[in-house]
Design brief:
This protein has 192 residues and is of the alpha+beta class. The chain is built from two helices and twelve strands; from the N terminus they run αββββββββββββα. Strands 2, 4, 6, 7, 8, 10 and 12 form a seven-stranded mixed sheet that branches.
Length: 192
């Protein structure tokens, strides 16, 4: 329960920060509902804002110090020929991808593309914050980037719990459905 509260507090604090797109590329992590202990695969995304970009290489650090999460593996976007293998259990997980053919991964203005898919084991709710280190264009010139404060890492969140009013609506629908079924059954008995 304490981990759940810590995770929610961290996500709320980071989400409360105002989002300003002052960079050409905004980095974000996927957030998914926790469905029980097991293996999860979540993505790291890049979104072109302000202008289109072609990314030739990047370095990202993922903080797996949360005791509920254990890094397993990374699958990089196919645009990159040279990638840094990362050992299972690494903390931090240092990710690096480079396109040595000088073509790069294209990001049209407003496009969101997957940079890498991260597989990890989760024992409970948790988060792995992203720390972007470096992004370059196809010819290895620097690209301005920022981290999306609304999705600053990979995170497993608690399952949504319906509000009491939702339960009330479901109860009323159940009663109406039951009444209709009983009425049809009575009519069928009278005809027989």
């Amino acid at each position: 329960m304490l981990n759940c509260i810590r995770t929610l507090a961290a996500v709320a604090l980071l989400s409360a920060t105002s989002f300003t797109a002052d960079a050409a590329l905004v980095i974000s992590g996927e957030v998914q509902e926790f469905a029980g202990a097991g293996t999860y695969t979540l993505d790291i995304f890049g979104t072109a804002v302000g202008q289109a970009e072609t990314i030739g290489g990047w370095n990202i650090s993922l903080d797996f110090s949360d005791p509920n999460l254990t890094f397993q593996s990374v699958a990089y976007a196919s645009d990159y020929e040279t990638v840094l293998p990362v050992a299972s259990g690494s903390d931090p997980a240092l990710l690096q991808a480079t396109d040595t053919n000088f073509v790069g991964q294209d990001f049209a203005l407003g496009d969101t593309n997957t940079l890498a898919s991260i597989t990890f084991n989760a024992a409970d709710l948790g988060a792995a914050p992203i720390s972007p280190v470096l992004f370059t264009d196809a010819f290895f010139g620097g690209v301005d980037f920022s981290l999306d404060p609304g999705a600053p890492g990979l995170a497993l969140t608690p399952a949504a719990v319906p509000e009491p009013s939702s339960f009330a609506v479901l109860a009323v629908l159940g009663m109406v459905g039951g009444a209709i079924r009983r009425r049809k059954a009575r009519k069928a008995q009278k005809k027989a």
